[in-house]
Write a structure and sequence with these properties.
5 domains, about 950 residues, Rossmann fold, alpha+beta, globular, D-amino Acid Aminotransferase, Chain A, domain 1, ATP-binding, about 35% helix
């Protein structure tokens, strides 16, 4: 059986051979001038000079670190090849985790930093701080674990623990050149990690400990801002058990707030961004919520602030481009945060603030505008004020500063006279200083940086190189890096620079209009960012717009008339497809485009004033480009003209049912994943079962199903439907799911006819989601298909014993799996990779549900939630059974004629290895935290995401050669 590493090597060897024998201009042979011109408008950033198609990685033996001269780490990088000239690569210590509720976001940030700074001149060593402030050295592979629970569970077997933080600091002093802390909240931004590093003279990126402590505490920071002459929000401090209701009532009266209904924001002073923030009404409610924050141990200091209404929040990234200790902060283009409300909602609580969920999870309740839709003088004042704050608070390298803009028509609760922030158009109030801004792939840091010419890699390396300047021994290294950012065409002197014509074109398409479209955006973004790192690829991100955006404007028009937008770098970095689409339309509006270009040029001029003094800065690498709109037909024709391979990341709908595959195949355009017939079969869960029914004696079982029409469900009495289904399927509990839709969407466990009634009502009312715990048994949010499916499948709900990852207690040294094992079935999900007829199974992952009985979309795809045990623990699955199950999975894949890659969800018998098929996903999730990433990393040697996606791309390209 060929290993995935072998598949990867074969694919890349074929690619090198093809590039050697192909004429230099084969990618542009034939085709219309108009299409080539259109493509010229959307070409993605890459190096300006010809490069070898030889990959910059090799699959090694997964050996532990040895000497400095001959090392192969678990990524397979041969370290002796690293370095610039005779200089060794500088070692960056990446520290993530921490004790705050933002640990999951910290892990996502660490993945982004690792993905984008590793290179010939920088080597990254990874470290993790757990919730109890224990430090661990971890492999880069572990950074891709999904959750803090994943980290903690694997630490004992996969990490090197340190006996104390002192020992950890001593190790850092000897092992790394500089530390990049990406711990959000407590211990990361409150001066904790900085104080430790300063005591042991370890260089680090970012602000010093004293300045962090002052800026992190929201109450202390507001006092300092007021002292420095900035407008602030009137507030009241509740500390420990000292709260006095009469003093709070006096504060309400002083600020003209109704003591019974006055609206305020209650938030911990030292809990990081959005954690524990809530809205309260009146004195009693405010004090109750403040005391709750204290009682829950979030913080013992809570600040109560006047709720600002009538304005909007903004956030601004500040980048220091000064030299050494001479600060020269430049504020990038700020982002306006627009809260959106759809339908009838109760805004008294959940929808009143920019909370943690809105900030980090895909939601249509928020939209971002960069630059803000404010008057130019307001944007200028925000940039000026944030720069002054950065300097006067003594911040270093970079930061994110949040605030509010209140138009002049809005009442502003002025705290005192002569404050900075008052303009002719309104008032600017700075409210929060974030010392370590989030660094997820679509974070504000990257959104704003890309608007002014920085790629992910370029902005992160600029931050690190700036930090080097404070340390003479490191500063000399920073000047000799030959790391050159990949430049877009418009920055290459209008294309007049010599360019390689044998660069392969790749279109990554994502979006659509199914309930999985936000996951699709996450997948497509991740694929695009990973593939664009290859010098022999030119990767274009493409948004498949919702069906109501078709060019004819007629509902139900032919698929070929649907709209695809090719996107510039900065417009990809959004949380929702709706936001990407709105940003596309906003970007091509002439007045808006002109203003954005003007402001962008101002910021770039400000940046260059400082950056031109630094030898390490090699230039901006993202062009000021506009999105381009095509019909699907035009887009496919363009792909054909430039001989692009399409990487399909559209989950569900036309991306997974064979429609898009059929259009591409008819045009001769290569694409990733299974072919047309396999896609059609797997999208239809009944057809999938039918195709596999004959494999029962080979260990592959299917679940009995009953298909019901939505119309019948809406018109028949619920009790009658329930009785007929349970009698026919011979079960007491049902699982319902759309007959033709992607994973998790519309899937629910029904325990009684009342549950069925709730589900049918959701279908009838076309609800977008069923709220948590609406059914008789506890469950999380159930995302519903939109529009509701015409056919639904009912099948027996398979009972399995709950698998629990226990938390480590003070008296225990490790985490434990708790599993009764009465039922010998466990739920698994398995990736398959390879060519038609020879698909190979990766290591299965055992799924651990955190809420209810059905994995939610968030648990499956969003970092920070969901647990997958990869590979299955031997305490649950015997090795013989595991090997048998993998053979069964490969049998399923080859019977269904899968190719490229797919994911199979099933139940596994832990004794026999038999599998009971749930469904097959031909366009599985490819977000940074999904199981296929974990399973590729579990290979020996590990296959890292960049290599993994390249393998999948090459498999798609090769089958059309």
């Amino acid at each position: 059986m060929a290993s995935l590493a072998h598949i990867a090597n074969l694919s890349l060897a074929n690619d090198v051979f093809a590039s050697a024998v192909t004429p230099q201009k084969r990618l542009f042979c034939g085709g219309s001038v108009e299409l080539r011109k259109l493509y010229g408008e959307i070409r993605r950033s890459r190096r300006g000079s010809c490069v070898s198609t030889k990959p910059d990685w090799k699959l090694g033996a997964g050996l532990p670190r040895a000497s400095a001269t001959e090392v192969v780490d678990d990524r397979g990088f041969e370290q002796e090849e690293k370095g610039v000239g005779n200089r060794r690569p500088l070692k960056v210590g990446l520290i993530c985790g921490g004790p705050s509720a933002e640990r999951g976001i910290s892990l996502n940030s660490a993945r982004s930093v690792l993905d984008h700074i590793e290179g010939e001149d920088l080597d990254v060593l990874c470290y993790y701080i757990d919730a109890d402030l224990n430090a661990h050295a971890i492999s880069p592979a572990q950074v891709y674990s999904n959750t803090p629970a994943d980290f903690d569970f694997k630490l004992e077997s996969l990490a090197q623990g340190f006996s104390s933080l002192s020992e950890f600091a001593e190790h850092l002093a000897a092992a790394v050149d500089i530390v990049f802390p990406v711990i959000h909240g407590r211990f990361g931004e409150d001066g904790g990690i900085q104080d430790l590093l300063e005591k042991y003279n370890v260089p680090f990126v970012g602000t010093g400990s004293h300045e962090c402590r002052q800026a992190f505490d929201k109450y202390d920071a507001s006092l300092e801002l007021k002292k420095l002459g900035f407008e602030t929000v009137p507030n009241f401090l509740v500390q420990g058990a000292e709260a006095d209701i009469s003093e709070l009532a006096e504060w309400f009266a002083k600020n003209c707030l109704d003591p019974n209904s006055g609206k305020v924001v209650v938030k911990p002073t030292r809990a990081g961004s959005s954690i524990g923030v809530t809205v309260a009404y009146g004195v009693a409610d405010s004090l109750e919520k403040a005391n709750k924050i204290i009682a829950e141990g979030i913080d013992d200091r809570v600040v109560i602030e006047i709720f600002l209404e009538g304005g909007s929040e903004f956030t601004a990234i500040v980048l220091d481009v000064g030299y050494g200790f001479n600060s020269h902060p430049v504020v990038l283009l700020p982002t306006e945060v627009e809260l959106q409300f759809h339908g009838t909602v109760d805004v008294r609580e959940k929808d009143a603030i920019f909370n943690y969920r809105r900030k980090y999870l895909p939601t249509q309740q928020v939209a971002y505008h960069t630059p803000p839709r404010y008057p130019v003088d307001v944007i200028s004042n925000i940039r000026e004020g944030a720069s002054l704050l950065f300097q006067q608070l003594g911040l270093r390298d970079f930061a994110r500063i949040d605030g509010w803009f209140l138009p002049s028509t809005t009442h502003v609760p002025h705290s005192s006279d002569n404050k900075f922030g008052r303009t002719g158009s309104g008032t600017i109030i700075f409210t929060d200083i974030n010392l370590i801004s989030g660094m997820e792939q679509t974070s504000f840091l990257f959104q704003q940086a890309s608007k002014v010419g920085f790629s992910h890699s370029n902005i992160l390396r600029s931050i690190i190189n700036h930090a080097f300047l404070r340390f003479p021994d490191l500063a000399s290294h920073s000047r000799v890096s030959d790391h050159l950012p990949r430049r877009s065409k418009s920055l290459q002197f209008s294309g007049k620079v010599n360019r390689c014509e044998d660069v392969r074109k790749v279109f990554v398409i994502f979006g659509g209009d199914t309930s999985e479209r936000q996951v699709s955006l996450m997948s497509g973004t991740n694929i695009w960012l990973n593939l664009q790192a290859f010098d022999d690829l030119e990767v274009t991100p493409c948004l498949l717009a919702p069906s109501n955006e078709n060019l004819s404007g007629v509902e139900g028009s032919d698929v070929s008339s649907r709209v695809v937008w090719t996107l510039p770098y900065s417009l990809v970095l959004r949380h929702t497809t709706e936001e990407v689409l709105a940003a596309c339309k906003e970007a091509i509006e002439p007045n808006r485009a002109a203003l954005t270009s003007l402001l962008r040029n101002q910021v770039m001029d400000d940046l260059m004033e400082g950056l031109k003094k630094h030898g390490w800065f090699t230039g901006f690498d993202i062009a000021d480009e506009l999105p381009v709109r095509f019909s699907v037909e035009e887009w496919i024709k363009l792909a054909k003209e430039v001989q692009a391979t399409v990487f399909i990341a559209v989950h569900g709908g036309i991306g997974e049912d064979g429609t898009l595959q059929s259009l591409l195949a008819a045009a001769g355009v290569p694409y990733t994943g299974p072919g047309v017939e396999a896609s059609k079969t797997c999208m239809d869960k009944v057809s999938t079962s039918t195709a596999l029914n004959h494999l029962a004696n080979m260990g592959v079982l299917t679940i009995n199903k009953d298909v019901q029409r939505k119309e019948d469900l809406l018109n028949m009495p619920t009790f009658k439907i329930w009785h007929e289904l349970t009698s026919k399927l011979q079960c007491e509990t049902l699982c319902v799911k759309p007959a033709r839709d992607g994973c998790s969407t519309g899937v629910a466990r029904l325990c009684c006819q009342e549950d069925l009634a709730v589900y049918v009502k959701a279908l009838k009312e076309c609800l977008l989601r069923i709220p948590p715990n609406s059914l008789s048994k506890a469950h999380g949010m159930i995302e519903m298909p939109n529009p509701p499916p015409e056919l639904l499948i009912f099948e027996p709900f398979i009972e399995t014993d709950e698998i629990v990852v226990s938390s480590k207690s003070k008296n225990e040294s490790a985490h434990h799996l708790m599993w009764k094992g009465h039922s010998r079935w466990v739920e698994v999900t398995v990736g398959v990779v390879g060519k038609l007829g020879s698909m190979r199974s990766l290591s299965p992952s055992v799924t651990v549900k955190e809420t209810g009985d059905i994995l939610s979309l968030e648990e499956k795809f969003q970092g920070g939630t969901g647990i997958n045990l990869t590979p299955p623990p031997v305490s649950i699955v015997r090795s013989e059974a595991l090997e048998k199950s993998k053979k069964c999975i490969e049998l399923i894949a080859n019977t269904l004629q899968l190719e490229g890659f797919s994911r199979i969800d099933a139940f596994m018998d832990v004794d026999s290895g038999e599998v009971l098929v749930i469904e097959v996903n031909t366009v599985p999730g490819m977000t940074p935290s999904t199981v296929l990433i974990h399973q590729a990393l579990a290979e020996k040697p590990p296959i890292y995401p960049r290599q993994f996606f390249r393998t999948l791309l090459d498999l798609g390209s090769e089958r059309f050669m």
